[in-house]
Amino acid sequence: MAAICEACGGRTEEVTNPYFGKALAVHEHVIMCSQCGHVRFEERDVVRAPAVAVKREGPLLRFWHWFAHQS
């Protein structure tokens, strides 16, 4: 899928993101201009990590729950 570069008007192509999977890179592919090298990201390509529920219950909260149910 060739599109037009927003920076120079040249031809663009979809290439593999060399930083994907490292640190915060979440785009598997990027759109790169073959004329000026301008790079943009495609939102459709974002890979999101699954949400993980964090259990936040320390000793003070456990005590509070225990105390509240002592009726």
Mean pLDDT, nearest integer?
Answer: 80
Largest sheet: 3 strands, antiparallel
pLDDT < 50 runs, ≥5 residues = none
Strand order of the largest sheet: 1-2-3
The 3D shape can be described as rod-shaped
Query: How many helix segments?
Result: 1
Distance between the termini: 68 Å
From the helix content, strand content and strand pairing, which structural class follows?
alpha+beta
Number of strands: 3
Rg from alpha-carbon coordinates? 24 Å
Helix content: 10-25%
What can you tell me about this protein's structure?
- It is a single chain.
- The chain has a domain at 1-49.
- The mean pLDDT is 80.
- Strands 1-2-3 form a 3-stranded antiparallel β-sheet, with no helix packed on it.
- The chain is built from 1 helix and 3 strands; from the N terminus they run βββα.
- It has one helix at residues 59-68; strands spanning 12-16, 29-33, 39-41.
- With 71 residues, the protein is α+β, with helices and mostly antiparallel strands.
- The termini are far apart.
Write the topology of this structure.
Blueprint (H helix, E strand, L loop, with lengths): L11 E5 L12 E5 L5 E3 L17 H10 L3
Antiparallel strand pairs: 1-2, 2-3
Main features:
alpha+beta, 71 residues, single chain
Brief overview:
With 71 residues, the chain is α+β, with helices and mostly antiparallel strands. It has one helix at residues 59-68; strands spanning 12-16, 29-33, 39-41.
